[in-house]
């Protein structure tokens, strides 16, 4: 387990950004029922953990995408993280709306972006990958050279992995579902035997046999 993955996982658990609720599953916009929900917006209200996460984003951009020229946040959750990381890196940033405005300049991309610029997308979490790939497509259509994505957390679902591969998009996450589960057990948020049920959900979201089994 990498140190950064573990440190970020601990930070998310400390501020209760990760919820475990198998008896009353969370329902995602995609319709998937999940025993786990990750709310990375809570990072912004926790200064100690925010420093850990934002520095990790900046370090990851610098290490994995050294040619990056602009950071672009996803709307709305990725905007603040992109802004803070860009400040640490002394880089420009902007964000991509979920749709074009119906007034003014009718922008979908906010902030200055020149054709050919090398962009890294900042996302808070990735499950099936659909929303972040829409952002990548908007940027590519605008002429950007999208180097890849830095996300705070990924569920590591096969559907998301396959979508990323099909779109030729690279994602680097600070932490992931397996690490969160392992650290949660180590820190006594869940029992060690619960890890298997969580991984079973991740590997096959359509298998709902975990529902009602307390973690």
Written description of the protein model:
The protein has 215 residues and is of the alpha/beta class. Helices cover 39% and strands 21% of the residues. The strands form 3 sheets. A 6-stranded mixed β-sheet has the order 7-6-5-8-9-10, sandwiched between helices. Strands 1-4 form a two-stranded antiparallel ribbon. Strands 2-3 form a two-stranded antiparallel sheet. β8, α4 and β9 form a beta-alpha-beta unit.
In what order do the strands lie side by side in the largest sheet?
A: 7-6-5-8-9-10
Strand content: 15-25%
User: What is the chain-wise order of helices and strands?
Assistant: HEEEEHEHEEEHEHEHH
Structural class: alpha/beta
Amino- and carboxy-terminal Cα gap: 22 Å
Helical region count?
Answer: 7
């Amino acid at each position: 387990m990498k140190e950064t993955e573990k440190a970020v996982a601990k930070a998310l658990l400390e501020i209760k950004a990760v919820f475990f609720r198998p008896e009353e599953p969370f329902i995602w916009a995609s319709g998937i029922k999940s025993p786990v929900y990750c709310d990375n917006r809570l990072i912004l209200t926790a200064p100690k953990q925010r420093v850990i996460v934002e520095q990790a984003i900046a370090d990851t951009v610098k290490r994995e995408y050294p040619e990056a020229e602009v950071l672009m946040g996803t709307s709305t959750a990725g905007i603040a993280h992109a802004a803070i990381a860009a400040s640490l890196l002394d880089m420009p940033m902007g964000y991509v709306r979920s749709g074009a405005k119906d007034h003014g300049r009718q922008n979908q991309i906010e902030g200055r972006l020149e054709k050919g610029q090398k962009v890294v997308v900042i996302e808070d979490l990735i499950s099936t990958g659909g929303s972040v790939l829409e952002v990548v497509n908007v940027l590519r259509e605008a002429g950007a050279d999208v180097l890849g994505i830095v996300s705070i957390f990924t569920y590591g679902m096969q559907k998301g992995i396959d979508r990323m591969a099909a779109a030729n998009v690279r994602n680097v996450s600070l932490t992931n579902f397996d690490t969160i589960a392992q650290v949660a057990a180590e820190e006594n948020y869940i029992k060690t035997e619960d890890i298997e049920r969580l991984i079973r959900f991740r590997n096959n979201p359509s298998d709902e046999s975990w529902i009602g089994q307390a973690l």
